[in-house]
Amino acid sequence: MELTILILLLPFFSFLLLGIGGKWMSHRTAGAIGTLVLGAVAVLSYVTAFQYFSAPRLEDGTFATLIPYNFTWLPFTETLHFDLGILLDPISVMMLIVISTVSLMVHIYSFGYMKGEIGFQRYYAFLSLFTMSMLGLVVATNIFQMYLFWELVGVSSYLLIGFYYTKPAAISASKKAFIVTRFADLGFLIGILIYGYYGGTFGFTPDTVSLVSGGAAMLPLALGLMFVGGAGKSAMFPLHIWLPDAMEGPTPVSALIHAATMVVAGVYLVARMFPLFIEYAPNTLHMVAWVGAITAFYAASVACVQSDIKRVLAFSTISQIGFMMVALGVCTSMNPHEGGLGYMASMFHLFTHAMFKALLFLGAGSIIHAVHSNEMSAMGGLRKYMPITHWTFLIACLAIAGIPPFSGFFSKDEILAACFQYSSVMGWVMTVIAAMTAFYMFRLYYGIFWGKENKELHAHHTPHESPLAMTFPLMFLAAVTCGAGFIPFGHFISSNGESYSIHLDPSVAITSVVIAIISIAIATWMYKNAKQPVADSLAQQFKGLHKAAYHRFYIDEIYQFITHKIIFRCISTPIAWWDRHVVDGFFDFLAWATNATSDEIRGLQSGQVQQYAYVFLCGALALILLLVL
């Protein structure tokens, strides 16, 4: 495992090389350097995973936790110190595979998609920084190191979302993402400090915790504040507002952010701190479940009416991340047979979702590359022009809808089984949301590849299939999506000596598949044909609801009202007036009074000897008269 350090160093050096010397390189050279480096990182990640999972297990049946590198950066006490290192365990090794695979596909895909773009070298430099930041986050040996790389992920996303810095929309979106996630990260930082003080450690496991007086009562608060940071990064309601606008960045960036890096960081945080949640804050964990369920339902509702294909996928990501949070939140034990099924289900869905969501976003990029528009009104009938994109996109839609034998079926079935194990209410809520997922994804599919063809637009620019640099990642990810469900994932994720066995709950699986097929049939009936009278009639009949969902239920407008009308106008403006007129006025008065007084008395220091003698004589006479009288 000595070479694992190169998994972080290689993309970092690539960032430095392309960032500093990229302007003297051709596009082909810069892209080749970035892609070859990521290829090497992917190979190292696969080798690390093979060596790790093929090593003998411990006596209790679990995989060992390895720390190939670790050194103390800032010591405070014997147990409390800031360390930097690399930690390898089942979920961190799994994340190395996910991040390196998706990032490599994005690098290859960008050769075709970003061809001829101004700032091509800068784009690849930012991709390398983003990948390095996320890799450093998942192999962190402690929560403080995770926070350092967490903030680097935020900086990287700001740079990539605002890549087209001449576009006002991209500038606004990058600032929005940065500011919203910084507010959430403030909660994360406070939680880390509380945890470090009362827990006496920055470690991830309960056996490293050394509670001070009252620490048991404070750890739920600390873990809850850490979840606030995860909720911001993973776009949980109501901190989701930055993610749809992040679509202003290049489409390959959207695939990287939504599939393998930024948005899954919050899920990974909760999974990494999972033993502590179970031990000290089980009620907080259940709060995580309901936040995830609300987020999943809200995002699915909005996705059902969006017309921008990237925004449909953005809200789909928010909804699917909600599924992962729910799976973690419904756990009541570390033991898979005693309520711990959701932990494995969440990690399994994170893995499968990364592959088919990257496929969906890269497929959307291929479509946008062909028609030069994000709107479904510019599409329709594209299946005959773009066969590879069509079939790979269909595979991803079937996977996310939960249709067997595609990977999404297996992971989503595990989540639903865990939800029903927790409570029937949660199980049926998530089943309904899964049905909504199938509906809006096939509404998107039919709107793009079937439906009414925009012949007027196509007459000026005939759509065509993307080049091999773009279609190869689509075919590769489609193959992974078809086969990932058959990976014995539970074999690799184990805890307390108990393996998480993947098994199909027949009642849950059959019910979810039947409901998904019904949802797909409804979407087919409503959207497959060129004319869509049923959809138009429903949109007109429920005009207010449709408009509200299209405008994201006005959450952004509510934020604007609260910030501009209440905080800025009613709080900030009066405070600014008081600062300018009272505080500044008082100190301006002191300065004026000092100047005016000095003007009046400066004659006393005139430098004229005769005047000094005259004043001295008058003073002496005054003292004599005072003494005499």
Give the tags:
629 residues, 4 strands, NADH dehydrogenase (ubiquinone) activity, 3 domains, mainly alpha, two-stranded antiparallel ribbon, 3% strand
Structure description:
The chain is mainly α and 629 residues long. It folds into three domains: 1-184 and 235-273, no CATH class; 335-345 and 353-546, no CATH class; 557-628, no CATH class. Helix content is 71%, strand content 3%. It has 25 helices and four strands. Strands 1-2 form a two-stranded antiparallel ribbon. It has a two-stranded antiparallel sheet with strand order 3-4. Strand 3 (494-495) and strand 4 (498-499) form a beta hairpin. The radius of gyration is 30 Å and the shape is globular. 50% of the residues are buried. The model has no long low-confidence stretch (mean pLDDT 87).
- Point out poorly predicted stretches: none
H/E series: HHEEHHHHHHHHHHHHHHHHHHEEHHHHH
Count helical runs: 25
Q: Mind telling me the C-alpha Rg?
A: 30 Å
Strand content: under 5%
- Strand order of the biggest β-sheet: 1-2
Q: Distance between the terminal alpha carbons, to the nearest Å? A: 101 Å
Helix content: over 70%
Task: Find the structural class using helix and strand composition.
Answer: mainly alpha
Largest sheet: 2 strands, antiparallel
Average pLDDT for all residues: 87
- The outline comes out as globular
Total DSSP E strands:
4
Domain NADH-Ubiquinone oxidoreductase (complex I) chain 5 N-terminal: 73-124
Protein name: NADH-quinone oxidoreductase subunit L
Subcellular location: Endomembrane system; Membrane
Organism: Bacteroides finegoldii
